UniProtKB/TrEMBL annotation:
CDD domains: FN3. It holds the Pfam family fn3. The gene is Cntn6_2. This is CNTN6 protein. Residues 1-49, 54-151 form the Fibronectin type-III domain. GO terms for cellular component: axon; plasma membrane.
């Protein structure tokens, strides 16, 4: 705090956060030292402002076929800067020039799911998430690449063969399915 001249009876406090409650105390000082602080003032809330902090850890992926799942870290209440806070989700297929915009009007939200039958499995999307409140739209995050949901594998393993090892054991082998956008990631095989 800046020391105010002894003949001055008011001061302007700067660099406060918007839409936050503050209380103030005044302390008198002289060459001998500092006295006791005054009783606290009544709580005073600063005016609202457009939010300036974008969500962090924007990512996503997973979900079902024909879904794009976007996730982010929610913005803490002290950085929301006003009432009517929510999130703006912007996304487009990688290489496209047109953004699709969605709004999530929930302070606690940390996820958005876009469903569209025309989405190809494991398609890359450019995604950014922003914030807004009653004062207006704020900052957008930097762009993240998020992949749409996978489909179940469309190809069966080939070259299945079985070899008898003993009276109680059989070894089964097959050729692995190569990864591509249409088969998705093969997490395991089921032997029947």
């Amino acid at each position: 705090p800046e020391v105010v001249n002894g003949r001055t009876h008011k001061a302007t406090v700067v660099d406060l956060s918007p839409w936050v409650e503050y209380e103030f105390r005044v302390v008198a000082s002289n060459s001998v030292g500092i006295g006791e602080p005054s009783r606290p003032s009544a709580l005073l809330k600063t005016k609202a402002a457009v939010p300036v902090v974008a969500p962090t850890n924007v990512s996503g992926g997973g979900g079902s076929r024909s879904e794009l799942v976007v996730t982010w870290e929610p913005v803490p209440e002290e950085l929301q800067n006003g009432e009517g806070f929510g999130y703006i989700i912007m996304f487009r297929p990688l290489g496209s020039t047109t953004w699709t915009k969605a709004v999530v009007a929930s302070v606690e939200a940390n996820k958005y799911v876009y469903r569209n039958e025309s989405i190809t499995p494991l398609s890359p999307f450019e995604v950014k998430v922003g914030v807004y409140n009653d004062e207006g739209e704020g900052t957008l995050s930097s762009i993240s690449i998020v992949y749409s949901g996978e489909d179940e594998p469309q190809i069966a393993p080939a070259g299945a063969s079985a070899l008898s090892i003993s009276a109680a054991e059989v070894e089964v082998s097959w050729q692995p399915i190569a990864w591509n956008r249409h088969t998705g990631r093969v997490l395991g095989y089921e032997v029947r």
